[in-house]
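Hi team,

Below is the intake form for DUF1508 domain-containing protein from Apibacter mensalis. Please confirm the fields before the structure is written into the shared record.

FORM ID: S-0412
PROTEIN: DUF1508 domain-containing protein
ORGANISM: Apibacter mensalis
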Amino acid sequence: MFEIFKDKSGAFRFRLKAKNGQIILASEGYTQKTNCQKGVSSVKRNSKNEDRFELKQSTNKKWFFNLKAGNGQIVGTSELYDNETNAKNGVKSVMNNAPTAETVDLSK
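The structure came back. Fields below:
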């Protein structure tokens, strides 16, 4: 499920949750809700293509991934994982959950 919400600074953000409630992808902050909704649509489209995921290792040796749109812009970032295998499983989870996930607007 995608959740659209307002953060403490008033920016709109979305997060994708797996069926177990764990957050598997989160967005940047958007100034307008419509742009946040477009971000959700972009994740739904781009998550079908494994080539749009970029695995990375952070400076503290944790793993994460970014999901990029066709233009190369990052549309979502994962949580940090202890190892590369878990990060790859996170990618699979986004690929399985995002395309058909419902969207709930918590910003109202």
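SUMMARY LINE: The two ends are 17 Å apart (CA to CA).

Thanks, M.
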